[in-house]
Amino acid sequence: MKLAFSSLACMEWPLEKVAAEAKKYGYDGVELRGKEYRHLDPAMDSDQRRKVRDLFAASGLEIPCVTAYTRLTMADPEERKKSVATLKDQIQLAADLGARFVRTFGGPIPAGVEIPDCLDYVAASLREVGEWAADHGVEVLLETHDDFSLSERVAEVMKKVDHPNVGVLWDVLHPVRFGETPEETFARIGKHVRFVHVKDARRAGIGEYWPLTLLGRGEAPLERIVEVLRQNGYDDYLCFEWEKPWHPEIEETEVALPHAAGVMKQLTRRGTADPVLPDTGGAAYRVRSYAFQMEQFIPRGLFDLITDIRVSRPEIIREEAAARRQRERLTLDGKLAILACDHPARFVTRVGDDPLAMGDRWSYLGRILRVMTCPEIDGVMATPDIIDDLFIVNYLYKQVNGKGFLDDKVLLGCMNRGGLAGTEFELDDRMTAYTAERMREMKLDGAKIMFRLDPRERDSGRTIAYCAGAITQCNRLDLPVFLEPLPVSRTEKGFTVQMTAADLVKVAGVASALGDSSSGLWLKVPYVPGFEAVARSTTLPILMLGGEASGDPTTILADFESGMKAGKNVRGALVGRNVLYPGVDDPFAVAAAVAKVVHASYSPADAVAYLMSVRDSDPFGVGAGVALTAVSKEQ
């Protein structure tokens, strides 16, 4: 499939910049907004039209579609004639630009008009326009939008039109908002689909407006949509639509367009992505033929050796904990970059399309070890099983290199993992992992707890009480606590985090007041647009969360760089799947880049350059994989 974006995202850019950025981000084409704005005007003369066409052709880009803003549901025949005339002008414009499609809306069905009558005259208008389009080598497409969001209605119109130059533009979000599955939508209108708009959003009520998100961060079933298209032989454009002019609160265009390119390339499995970060001055993140090879660093034999030590010499775990050198203070410069490794203990193993990625302990632990051997990373937050594994491997490293990797690292113990994902008791998140006493005994540096707040769920209150008790217990032992408060709501997919600044501000106020003292309390909250408001909601130090893995590690660098500027109390990041599973890249390199953003105020461009320079680095100098293999043979 080919990739495009709509120039709606960047109406203020001159066309020269639109073409240049599209090429830089790796798009194949640009859908041009055919309305009286900077990019296109039906009053353009033939020379102006030729220049636009030549500009994109010279950049190796297509103009696949022109978006008209016509509507055809008006009850007044004269108004419909005007709209048809405007649509014909847009078809002529598209033909002159070399575009194959022109988009039109159906429009809202007027009050007092019988729906069958309205569909009849919409179909008649489309048939007339289809004849005109056929003479110009163009197809006119009715978008799944407004009162034509449901595929059944669109299918009925297509049946009435019955013209080869009239088809459908499938805007994938609108049918989903009204409760349709991708399979249902395509079954009804698939044979008419010529062009596809993709966007993402978070769930609201059926038919209501859903707040937009960056692609892949909402609840639109994008993977299923692309799979339905692929299975049915669709091989034309996916066009990203970013409605920045109408929703100024969403991320900047310079963030959304490269991010969307990377996500769509992953969805369509189009080779390796070379997205360009915003404000990088042209520094590109490239993967090309590189692919991280785990066994180069962590041999499979290590997995068996860990079990052997657990059986024959379990005391090594306690000995390594006692021998580990701790920092005098939690932070060296007032900031922290911490790796989170507690997802499997809460019934979560999915990464991207792989439902069991984190269920492979060799791969999971190996990736954790890659990050933990990165000098720039401050430490790890994990459950007892993971930290015990790290103590064992630390012992093995010392056998071959004379030094371990846990000295001066921050070790945080996870306490509540009882709220298993997808269960009826998910929000009753009890303390089933570390206790405060055991963390102090094992010389850990702090505790991690969390609560998810849904005002409609009684179990939320119980977990808040558990967290308050845990904070009080940790305070008695002088253990800092890292509290993750998340506002959530129940959806068909389970509990979904409400990723808005307003929701996070409210829940931060609740979190800051828990326990008998906040003197050792840190908050861990997701980075969201408007993070300045979240920073202003508390005086507690904040670590940003980076979200799920997207396969494109560059997005979190831009997010974290922005978040670090949001307030003096934003003191770093706590990363997990997004660093451990960065597509084909090296977790060590991605973690190092994140740490540079946190500790050295690297720009996204500098962080990208650093990431690419440290792939496959071996801080131990002899190849940890080879050395540990030798140890395993001696044991």
Produce the secondary structure layout:
Elements lengths: L1 E5 L8 H11 L3 E5 L12 H13 L6 E3 L9 H21 L3 E4 L10 H21 L3 E5 L7 H11 L4 E6 L1 H5 L4 H8 L3 E6 L1 E2 L10 E2 L8 H10 L5 E4 L12 H16 L32 H12 L2 H9 L12 E6 L19 H12 L6 E4 L1 H18 L8 E5 L21 H6 L4 E8 L4 H19 L4 E11 L2 E4 L3 H12 L8 E6 L4 H5 L6 E4 L8 H11 L5 E6 L1 H4 L6 H14 L3 H10 L10 H11 L1
| Helical percentage | 40-55%
Looking at the structure, what is the overall shape? elongated
Oligomer: single chain
- Count all strands and give the number: 19
How much of the polypeptide forms β-strand, as a percent range?
15-25%
> Stretches where pLDDT falls below 50 for ≥5 residues?
271-283
Task: Quickly count the helices.
Answer: 22
**Could you describe the largest sheet, including whether it forms a barrel?**
8 strands, parallel, barrel
**Structural class determined from secondary elements:** alpha/beta
Radius of gyration: 28 Å
The N- and C-terminal alpha carbons lie at a distance of: 52 Å
**Chain-averaged pLDDT:** 89
Q: Give me the side-by-side strand order of the main sheet.
A: 1-2-3-4-5-6-7-10
